[in-house]
Design a protein that fits this description.
79% of the residues lie in helices and 0% in strands. It has 596 residues and is mainly α. Among the domains are: 125 residues; 81 residues, no CATH class. The radius of gyration is 38 Å and the shape is elongated.
Length: 596
């Protein structure tokens, strides 16, 4: 019987006892009322209006509520008493026994031979296990598990002392003893259906290479990796069969700690491919045992198992990349790209299985891997270009499919693309090519992504004024930031690339270059304004007016200082004509249409 079932039975017993007490109290009161009814009745005290108006007051025996409160109070005291007298007493007693054993071993240091000390340790360990086995029919599970767990710990420590302290065991003998103790603990855990014993056995099994100082770094580490493989297969198999989630977590944490410790002390360059193969094998083993049982049972993947899988993925992917980077040659992002495709395909499959948490988890891993692929594979300018398009794709997909998490990733990616863009434009241009140089590629990608995202945000705001997406980041605020950034981006891009094109021709600072910049800003502002008027989009109209205002300020504050005839006249004439066209647009389309 499992621990949960035992606790539920105890709660049922307590409730039945309380119910029996209430029944006896009611019987006693009914008997007392019958006795009073046989006697001459005395004038009854008048009832208050509250008592007369309460339909349950006449049916509820007096003192029942106080009896119920006393029963609940007694139950709480009983629980506290059982906790103090049970588990606290057990663990305190086990601690005292271990301390007594330590004191006795110290006293017997000069009186017993090393063989005698080890025999005493093994005898104590098996005695505790035997006591737990004998007490299981008359004691609760926590008591039995505590005794058996203490016995297993004693066996592990005794084996460690025989190897490390007394040097009585060869390595093979000590390792075999550790393996036998682990197998015994697993068998007891399976027999008792006890996750506690399984965790104790697992910790002892994973601690064996540390206690025994395995020399995996002096020769081939195959023995060490093979031992971890066999241990994980056995432990995860039992944990999955019994659905022990905490046991699975202990296996994952222990494996990561052991691998990290081994890498710090024993890693060599020639072990790179061996370690890559084994950590990939471990990742596959954990993935299978975390995900496959729920898939085979045609149910949603358990949240705890799903979280452990995501954690294992986050641990494995950077390590796998570091070990495989040289093997991929000119394509260091191939590992992340491959896993990105796998995760996205599995996400789609989970979506069709109607397992939304699993689908979002795999989609998140796919997004992370794709972002990592861009970061390690491409130059900074291409990174800014791809991050911008990627952010726009995430925002569009999230808004159309109502995926808040993906929307949040899209917003984060958009800010990340802006940071990447700033990092690119803060460096000088090295490619002697207009538009398609480092700055131009980054600007074009950012403007394309911002335009797509802004269009989708505007459409979504008009069709759904209220949306759960606003809890992640307000759509209106994101649209306003995107619109303002788009105006600045185009103004910066056009001015920079136009001046750079003249600089490549040896005409740096030419008046015609600045005239073209003013003309570009004017045309862009007029085009945005016209599009905003025709499409009835205030955001586009405001962007157009802002661009025209920038062009006007540039004309009076900068161009007027050095432009000469005929460039000055052309610049003023072009901007003036554009502003007249703006006024005409507002006079023609700015008024509301009369009702027909």
């Amino acid at each position: 019987m499992s621990e949960q079932a035992r606790r539920e039975l105890e709660q049922i017993k307590l409730q039945l006892n309380a119910l029996a007490d209430r029944v006896r109290e009611l019987e006693r009161r009914m008997a007392a009322e019958s006795a009073q009814a046989s006697q001459p009745s005395s004038p009854a005290a008048p009832k208050t209006p509250t008592e007369l108006s309460s339909p349950s007051a006449a049916l509820r025996p007096s003192g029942e509520s106080s009896h119920i409160s006393r029963s609940a109070e007694d139950e709480n005291w009983q629980r506290l008493e059982r906790l103090l007298g049970g588990q606290v007493a057990l663990y305190t007693g086990i601690t005292l026994i271990l301390l007594a054993a330590a004191f006795f071993m110290g006293w017997a240091w000069a009186r017993l031979s090393p063989e005698g000390r080890l025999a005493l340790g093994y005898l104590s360990g098996f005695a505790l296990i035997g006591l737990g086995s004998g007490a299981q029919r008359r004691s609760e599970s926590w008591f039995v598990d505590g005794l058996m767990g203490a016995g297993l710990a004693t066996l592990y420590l005794t084996t460690w002392a025989g190897w490390e302290r007394y040097r009585l065991f060869p390595f093979v003998g000590a390792f075999s003893a550790m393996a036998v103790t682990t197998a015994l603990g697993v068998a007891l855990a399976w027999w008792r259906n006890s996750q506690t014993l399984a965790i104790v056995a697992t910790l002892g099994g994973f601690a064996a290479p540390i206690w025994l100082n395995d020399d995996g770094g002096k020769g081939s580490p195959l023995n060490f990796f093979g031992y971890l493989t066999a241990l994980n297969l056995g432990m995860l198999g039992i944990a999955s069969a019994r659905e022990w989630r905490a046991h699975q977590a202990v296996c994952l944490a222990s494996t990561v700690i052991l691998l990290y410790g081994w890498a710090l002390g024993n890693y060599k360059a020639e072990y790179r491919l061996i370690m890559l193969g084994f950590i990939t094998l471990y990742y596959g083993i954990f993935s299978v045992f975390y995900l496959l049982p729920d898939v085979l049972h045609r149910r949603a993947i358990h949240e705890f198992s799903l979280g452990q899988f995501v954690l294992a993925s986050i641990v494995y992917l950077p390590a796998g990349y570091a070990l495989s980077r040289e093997a991929w040659g000119d394509y260091p992002g191939a590992l992340f790209a491959s896993f990105s495709v796998i995760y996205i395909l599995v996400s789609r499959w989970m979506y069709h299985r109607q397992d939304a948490p699993a689908s979002l988890s795999f989609a998140t891993l796919g997004v992370i891997c794709l972002a990592a692929t861009i970061a390690v594979q491409f130059q900074p300018s291409v990174q800014a270009f791809l991050y911008s398009l990627f952010a726009a794709a995430l925002i569009v997909a999230a808004l159309r499919n109502k995926l808040r998490i993906i929307y949040g990733f899209g917003v984060l990616m958009a800010f990340g693309a802006s940071v990447a863009l700033w990092g690119v434009i803060s460096q000088p241009i090295r490619t002697a090519l207009p538009l398609l140089n480092e700055h131009g590629v980054a600007w074009l990608g950012w403007m394309a992504g911002a335009s797509v995202a802004l269009y989708e945000l505007n459409r979504h705001l008009r069709t759904q004024p209220n949306s759960p997406m606003d809890a992640i980041f307000p759509r209106a605020a994101l649209a306003q930031l995107g619109a303002g950034g788009l105006v600045i981006a185009f103004a910066w891009f056009s001015a920079e690339q136009t001046l750079y094109a003249f600089e490549l021709q040896g005409k740096r600072g030419a008046p015609l270059a600045h005239l073209l910049v003013s003309l570009e800003w004017t045309l862009m502002g007029a085009g945005l304004l016209y599009g905003g008027v025709r499409a009835a989009l205030r955001a586009l109209r405001l962007m157009g007016l802002t661009t025209l205002a920038l062009a006007t300020c540039k004309l009076f504050l900068y161009d007027l200082g050095f432009l000469e005839m005929p460039y000055r006249a052309l610049s003023f004439a072009g901007l003036g004509a554009a502003l007249i066209g703006v006024a005409w647009l507002y006079s023609r389309y700015g008024q509301p249409t009369a009702a027909t």
